Amino acid sequence: MESNPTDLSALVISDKEFKMISELVLDKVGIHLADNKRTLLVGRFRKYLLENKLTFTEFHQKILADKTGNMQNDLTNMITTNHTFFNREATHFAFFLKTVLPEIDLDMKQNKKSDIRIWCAASSTGEEAIMIKLKMMEHFGVRYNSLNAGMLATDISTKVLNQARSGIYLQDNFKDLDPKIIDKHFKKVSPEKYKVNDNIIADIHYTIFNLVTGHYNFKQKFQVIFCRNVMIYFDSPTKEKVINSLYNVLEPGGYLFIGHAESLSRIKHSYLDIQPAVYRKPQ
To answer: How confident is residue 193, by pLDDT bands cut at 50, 70 and 90?
Structure first.
């Protein structure tokens, strides 16, 4: 039995439809949906199918025929989870500040360079990219403005990228951030919302990128890549593909940060294990 697009309460997904949609999600988004994710899938699609009067089968047919990319954006925005907050997994930012940035600074001084190349590869709504920028400003101080320190921040979802570009965040997102940092770098724009100061996001370049199907054709390699809390949605072959693609665009000695709920222990890679969820490309 196929889904009924006119009855929200009766929306179900058949075995055939679930197989079609889960294969589509894996191909287009890179997320593996196990059979126990049926209820989640129906919940994510419910409003969209009703508003557009589509069954799951009709949605599948339309997205394959769509040449604009709009329906793939709709699929991505429906299927991805984007819960995050400032200073999430704070030990990473402490290590970045105390260990990684001094190493980059020393290398720049020794080799008379001024480039800092950092990629926030699953930037979601921008909290992580802003934290990286704040730590760079904390380390370099007034010297920061003389550096070529723009940051690439990417995500597969246009919805979260638009929110990141707005720089506006709910008060709940700041629960783990020092109030002094909030007062210095954010402005309250409503009783429950803050906007990050323009100088913080001015050189964060937000753009769409699919870690699974994207082409890693960057002009220069990165010193640091943050790719946290996204690979938990990948199956092992996809995770291995992404991890090794990231390896290829890291410069020797470059660091990779992944989520604390993630691990590289069961996939083939050449990284050095530095500390929990921190890896390094051999020099």
So the answer is: very high
